[in-house]
Amino acid sequence: MTEVHLNYVGSWSGSAEGRTYRREVPSATAELVGVFAESTPSDIEHAVELATAAQPDWARRTAIARADVLSTAADLIRQRAAEIGRALSWEEGKPLREAVAEVHRGAAALAYCANYAYQSTGVTFASATPGVVKHQRLAPLGVVSIITPYNFPAFVALCKTGAALMAGNTILWKPSPLTPLTGIHLVRAFVDAGLPAGVLSYLTGTSTELGQGLVTHPGIDAVSFTGSTQVGKKIAASAVAHDKRAQAEMGGQNPALVFSDADLDHAAACIVDGAFGGTGQRCTSTARVLVERDVADELTAQIVQRAQELRIGRSLDEHTQIGPMVSEPARAKVAAAVEVARHEGAKVLTGGDTPFGGLFEDGYYYPPTVLSTVTTDMTIAREEVFGPTLAIIEVADRDEAIALANATEYGLSASVHTRSLKWAERFAHGVTAGSLNVNLPTSGIEAHVAFGGLKDSGSGPPELGPDAMRFFSNQVTVSTFAAPNSEQIR
Question: What architecture does CATH give domain 254-438?
Fold first, then answer.
């Protein structure tokens, strides 16, 4: 009999109604990752009750006491990184070495959040009233929900939970239904580190009803979401309608600009890494190359060669560089986008077909695909594909490249490759995106630096960095009169 992986709501338990769902392995769909609890509104209700009851005691702990729990959890996650990384790779399709590296990055992010305890807790201001001192500090919101994506199920979750817990909140966490096993391992680490029951609840499930409940429940004060723009916009609007704070990190259509003075070999390496790492399933993946016409042929040849050299295989194979996509709908979406591009006039230089035979017969594989003769009015140059595709667009000059970089509804990340400091600055001040990278891939974020998208790529304040706790906090001003005297007060 197949084991049912449980939710964590004060203790490990199945869903209130006993429902379950199955998750197959992306590399070998005849195999199961496992059977998981299909949570319902009753489970949300129970979790909110526990979270509401646990929050005052958790908030009353000193920041250093909360940090001790998080630091211990981070240490346990590091110790278990091989086991957790294997589970992540198995259920998501990410190559094993990338999965283990993600777990270590997540542990480092959690440890970084714990260090908030040793930073200033507020700021002091003078007052116009003699003898009065004003102090601003952060206070917990209460109960918050976090909704995390499949593509970085460890790193994103640990960034969000770390900031929310350090701020003194209690959490309801819904992972992607495609990667529930990774989260179970992380919750075990929190529990083993001594996190009190009720402070963190973990609810798995596939229904939109579950996600909606985590946004609309009157006992939840805020929601932090990472995922698609379509869903993120709905969540942000619903949160506002229900008088809740919302934070949404969403999709992108990220350009890499390549100028004629660039180191083309380095640029090609960065672009291939940015486009095809994680099988292109990163919100910061490189979607478009905007290259000056006089170096376009040389750059394109290098990109195609590098893409063709990437090794596709099962995620747990140590030689794999490109694993499967996370699901059949994800793979089918990429295949459809490439067919639309062909119909609209793009030329496929490599890839563009689902590999068949051998290990590919029962997995969600799609090869790295490079397209040329792409124009900015084509669908593949405007919409997020979220897969291993790269559209190459030739431009007449650098000003056109910057203009076209901004010619989408998205503004998440962008990169430029150039030896010119002047044009690097022009790029940095002329392109509208939350992350701007010079001679680097469009992908790559770090927990100690703020991250958030502009335009349709983000809603609410950015995540990560020194101010990450602010979203999960209220700002309170305390005014103190050191020696009360009624005459002076008047």
Answer: 3-Layer(aba) Sandwich (3.40)
Does the annotation count 384 as an active-site position?
no
Q: Which two tokens stand for residue 414?
A: 């962008």
- Indicate which residue of 98, 102, 249, 394 is catalytic: 249
**Around Cβ 251, how many Cβ atoms within 10 Å?**
26
Q: In whole angstroms, what is the distance from residue 294 CA to residue 259 CA?
A: 9
* Angstrom distance (rounded) from CA 307 to CA 348: 13
Nearest residue to 22 via CA among 177, 186, 182, 211: 177
For residue 22, the model assigns a pLDDT of 95
Fold classified for 4-250+457-477: Aldehyde Dehydrogenase; Chain A, domain 1 (3.40.605)
The β-bridge partners of 269 are: none
> Quick one: tokens of 87?
């589970």
Catalytic-labelled residue, pool 283, 292, 394, 463: 283
DSSP-derived pairing of the beta strands 143-147 and 254-258 = unpaired
Residue 40 Cα distances to 7, 201, 404, angstroms: 11, 14, 45
Query: b/e string for 315-325 if b means 16 or more Cβ within 10 A?
Result: bbbeebbbbbb
Residues of the chain with CATH 3.40.605.10: 4-250+457-477
Distance CA 253, CA 462 (A): 18
249 is catalytic: yes
Q: H helices within 61-179, ranges in order?
A: 63-79, 81-92, 96-114, 155-166
Question: pLDDT at position 34, please?
Answer: 95
- Asked if 409 contacts 455 with a C-beta cutoff of 8 angstroms, the reply is yes
Tokens of 181: 């096993």
CA–centroid distance for 447 within its chain: 11
List of residues 6+ apart from 271 with CB closer than 8 A:
256, 258, 286, 289, 303, 390, 441
* Ranges in the chain annotated CATH 3.40.309.10: 254-438
The residue among 100, 73, 107, 95 whose CA lies nearest residue 85 is 100
CA-only gyration radius of the chain, Å: 24
Provide the token pair at 248.
């949404």
d(CA 326, CA 335): 14
Coil vs helix vs strand at 28: strand
Using the predicted structure, report yes or no on whether residue 1 has a pLDDT greater than 70: no
**Model-wide pTM > 0.90:** yes
Convert the pLDDT of each residue in 410-464 to its tens digit: 999 999 999 999 999 999 999 999 999 999 999 989 999 999 999 999 999 999 9
User: Which pLDDT tens digit goes with each residue over 81-93?
Assistant: 999 999 999 999 9
DSSP state of 64: H
Tokens of 214: 């985590």
Burial of 243 from C-beta contacts in 10 A (0-12 / 13-18 / 19+): exposed
In contact, 478 and 134? CB cutoff 8 Å: yes
